[in-house]
User: Fold this.
Amino acid sequence: MGTLYVVGTPIGNLEDLSARALRVLREVSLVAAEDTRKTRTLFSRYDIHTPLTSYFEHNKLTKLEAILEALQRGDVALVSEAGMPGLSDPGYELIRATINAGFLVAPIPGPVAAITALVVSGLPTDSFLFLGFLPRKASERRRALQEVAVERRTLVLYEAPHRLADCLADVESVLGDRPVAVARELTKLHEEIYRGTVSTARQHFAPEAHGEVRGEVTLVIGGAPEASTTWDEERVRRALKEMLDGGMDRKEAVRQVTQESGWPRREVYRMTLVLPRSE
Assistant:
């Protein structure tokens, strides 16, 4: 019986392939690749001639049986489009199926965009929460952010370049104007790591200032600030009523009170729905 090697590959610079990963990719009988085109580029760079099979989001279930059969005959390597397989890609299903079938699974560590961005962000690294990709729909994305609004740990997430502006707008709306690092094209020729606040990041990456954003993006966001004291419910209601009666937009009132009170945004928003308004 063979072993499934979970192999980390470069996230950009092809020189980041480890010597062990190179040896394993040459020695296994088959490589299951999320993006065979990118893997062939890597193979060409290092003169690797191991047979390739595609294994990606839309064929991951139909390919499981064939890959498990290949493991009966010899070792197989799993590689993602870039970085470590199993993180925000379909590798998880194959790894689980391999374990359940009784085969060995061995890691070959390599670069990870989330960790790479985190350690150069300048934000706390002692404890963090990885969110993967946020939902594409705005309402679902904001809901996901609301669930971590009071999370004290540093937040790390992936985003597609064409959704970066909308994502940053939702982050500021739900979480407030926190410190942030936006890393794109990591380890590549046009690598960029922007450090600032969410509002300044929105300005920096605005199309009129930055132009089209290219390359996969990793966001590192500061955790919720520690409130000296959490407001009691009456104080939250009083602050909301004062802001709303003063003509402040409900969305902005909820954002400010959430940031200052230590209450979850969802609860603050619900209060605005039942508050009596001054005539």
Summary: The chain has twelve helices and ten strands. The mean pLDDT is 92. The CA atoms of residues 239 and 257 lie 7 Å apart.
